[in-house]
């Protein structure tokens, strides 16, 4: 059991949750909400 894999999964889950909760639109230019309309 490697902590790196766990951290990666947690980070990915956190990013997905933030991307789904923060911006009004889901994903426009990928997974990272860089541009705000």
TrEMBL record:
UniProt superkingdom = Eukaryota
Keyword Signal annotated: yes
UniProt keywords (A-Z) are: Signal
Signal peptide residues on this chain, from the entry's feature table: 1-21
Designated name of the protein? IFNGR2 isoform 4
Protein species of origin: Pan troglodytes
């Amino acid at each position: 059991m490697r902590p790196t894999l766990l951290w990666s999964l947690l980070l990915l889950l956190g990013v997905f949750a933030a991307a789904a909760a923060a911006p009004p639109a889901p994903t426009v230019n990928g997974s990272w909400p860089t541009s705000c309309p």
